[in-house]
Amino acid sequence: MAANNQDQQSQAGRHQEVGHKSLLQSDALYQYILETSVYPREPEAMKELRELTAKHPWNLMTTSADEGQFLNMLLKLINAKNTMEIGVYTGYSLLATALALPDDGKILAMDINRENYELGLPVIQKAGVSHKIEFKEGPAMPVLDQLVEDEKNHGSYDFIFVDADKDNYINYHERLIKLVKVGGLIGYDNTLWNGSVVAPPDAPLRKYVRYYREFVLELNKALAVDPRIEICMLPVGDGITLCRRIK
User: Which Gene3D superfamilies match (predicted)?
Assistant: First the structure.
């Protein structure tokens, strides 16, 4: 019994290390997915960056390893070449994207905190993919407005990943829908928001979860009725909604 308890504690500890974001009810099942499918195929650079990020005090902000694997395969399936990422943190999802793109692929990456990005940058450079990344520090909205102003940017992006300030997701969407090509994808992260989207009004939620919950719900309702896109909400990580532009 003691050995079983120690094993369970070890499993839980490993979860915390990588920033546990799974919505699966069973931690053991999530660990099975990681150890059977994700970790054995995880590129060495992504493993290094994941372990580096786990030591950061805000490590729960990182993209989960299974979601990183999903994004990497998705980008290969759609043959993405020109992409954008809003919200970078230390760059785990950014690295997953860069590794999936061809050598002349491009990522416009935006984040308000360059320090976090530079924490992971040496790993990205060592992986030989930093030349694909154009990093801009600061709020994304002014950059998006500038891109939208020039019509040559309309429909120029194959894939856009958003993992940033939830209270701006709706505002981002109205700009990104012009920038992504017809047939291209926008991925919105955290659309199940710690499972709080189905929590009753009086549920005990962390302050930040409760605050952003309404914005996530607003986004989900808007995407569900947006005639310009097809959507698919997946329970990967903390929930990711894929939007395929159809017009």
Answer: Vaccinia Virus protein VP39
